[in-house]
Amino acid sequence: MTRTELGSYLRRIACTLAGTLFGLLVGLALTLAIVTARARFQQHYLESADEIVGPMGAPVPLGAFAGGAAGWSGAATLTVVSAGGVVGGVVGGFTGWAIASGFSASDADRWAGGTIGAGVGASFGALILLIAVIARSRRSAASLAALCILSACADSPPDPPQIPAAPPLGTDDVESVIFLAGDGGEARYDRYPILPAMAADVENWAERLRRDSAVVVLMLGDNVYPEGMRAPDTDEFQGDSARMADQVAIIRGPASRRFGARMYFVAGNHDWGMGDAREGMRRIRNMGEFLDRVRARGVSVDLLPEAGTGMPAAIEAGRLRIVLLDTAWWLFDAAPDLKQQMLDELRDLLAAGEGPVVIAAHHPYVSAGPHGAFAPAWKQDLGIRYLLSRSGALLQDLGSLPYRDLLLGLNGVFAEGDRPLLFAGGHDHSLQVVRNDTESGPRYSIVSGSASKVSRVGWAPGTLFRRSAPGYMQLIVRRSGAVDLFVKSAPEQFLECPAPDGPEWEHCMAEGTASFTTVFSMRLLENGS
Asked: Which helix or strand (DSSP H or E) is residue 358 part of?
């Protein structure tokens, strides 16, 4: 082979590789368009971005093959096809965005229109010009067009406003203490310092207050990863039940049991098995039956709302009323008449008392984490999950139609009476405090979902505090009627310790447990008003 022939061959190889990459990107764009269209028009949602790997992602290898073939044909062919794909994607994206904007003011709808338009436009633009080039058998000496991957550029988030810290904690003025922690489904008592740290905190407050039922612990869903509690006759049940037992251990100290500390679990999407509703119902009932057996042994634990019913449940913590919701039940295709019944019962519960109301659920009212389409991980997945989330294709994200319907229904209930003081959720694995300055919705929202996992957190309007670290939160209800919020956290290095063996593990558990300190506090309500 001569030097000229070798150079020509190497150029062809380079063009083939470039064409394969371009075709892969066009195929990915078409896959995202198909997934988004199915979500918007057929209500067929993805549980996670991983589901595009498989038959649904067929356009990706097909696009890579077609792009490679164009590249093998030469730089001229690849240049024309690439130009068609880029122009088609840009025109299609803007057109889809504009059309969606004409029908809806929702960001999710506009992102869906843009995603569908860009995928279809890029695919047709590249395909039409490829066919034209093949049909005419033309070759030109044009150089290979440079391809750019566009990423979203956001301004740096503003510094949160300075919020006065809550007053120091005494004992005489405290009526009740409520702990909030979510997504603890991977935590084990001998490896995750957050569990013994919470147990010590609960025990301390039970001993200080020395009043029955004055301490309440709310576990905000995803209590058993990865697929909820399997049946007792399965091999997985032992591990599933051990995770639940380790969380129950938070209230098993002597003072906690003597003075009736209570623990309530709400269901999360993983507790529903992340699958069809029928199997999910069995997983939820398994969890409820497990807690029934624990309660029969004298430990005050319960699953609320009652397993699989979806209807809201209320408990009292001093003058504070806590309403618990199974939001995963809503998202997993509950019947419309049952959804309306849930909203009606929620309306009655909110109107039944005069004190402040806290709503606790797994899915948050607002979040600056991945489920809220914030903090995209461009380096990890090229922003694919972010795009799917913004377009409403992921069922568990705030942009999906069922999630938006849930928030719309809640806002309709809130608008008919006094809005809740606080909406507490987990789901995103971070700690967030957000103030709602509008007339609708809860006054404050929190995300406390980092009991066993940690994920990125960005910034959302109204954000007062955010941290990507293990932690939990406390509500302190004072005799004056005031309500204070405290956020307890430790450095991320103490999320999980090594296997329980040797001095390294002992040091990690001891230091990690002691590292949970107050990192943020504020007064949510002043003297009951």
From this structure: strand 357-360
How far is it, in rounded angstroms, from Cα 226 to Cα 300?
A: 25
With H, G, I as helix, E, B as strand and everything else as coil, classify residue 263. Answer: strand
260-290 burial: b if 16+ Cβ within 10 Å, else e? ebbbbbbbbbbbbbbeebeebbbbbbbbbeb
Residue 266, classed as helix, strand or coil, is coil
Nearest one of 350, 287, 361 to 324, comparing CA atoms? 361
The residue among 118, 121, 220 whose CA lies nearest residue 446 is 220
Q: Which of 28, 46, 29, 32 is nearest to 400 (CA)?
A: 46
Read off the pLDDT of residues 224-276 as tens digits, 9 standing for 90 and up: 999 999 999 999 999 999 999 999 999 999 999 999 999 999 999 999 987 66
**Are 273 and 280 a contacting pair, CB within 8 Å?**
yes
**What CA–CA distance (Å, rounded) separates 458 from 468?**
9
Q: What are the DSSP E strand ranges found in 267-352?
A: 301-303, 313-317, 320-324
CB atoms within 10 A of CB 58: 13
Q: How far apart are CA 25 and CA 126, in angstroms?
A: 11
Which position has the token pair 């001569």?
A: 2
* pTM for this entry: 0.79
Give the pLDDT confidence of 284-316 residue by residue, as tens digits. 999 999 999 999 999 999 999 998 889 999 999
Going across the sheet that includes 517-525, the strands are 301-303, 262-265, 215-219, 174-181, 471-478, 483-489, 517-525
27 φ, ψ to 5°?
A: -60, -40
The whole-angstrom separation of Cα 501 and Cα 337 is: 54
The count of residues in the chain is 529
Contact 153, 451 (CB under 8 A): no
What angle, rounded to 10 degrees, do the helices at 75-103 and 107-136 form?
150
Residues whose CB falls within 8 Å of the CB of residue 361, separated by 6 or more in sequence, listed in order: 220, 221, 266, 324, 325, 326, 327, 423, 424, 425
Whether 213 contacts 256, CB under 8 Å: no
Instruction: Tell me which residue of 166, 154, 153 sits closest to 464, measured CA to CA.
Output: 166
Q: Residue 180: helix, strand or coil by DSSP?
A: strand
Rounded distance between C-alpha atoms, residue 392 and residue 411, angstroms: 20
| Dist CA 108 CA 104 (whole Å) | 9
**Nearest Cα residue to 449 out of 250, 176, 218, 204:** 218
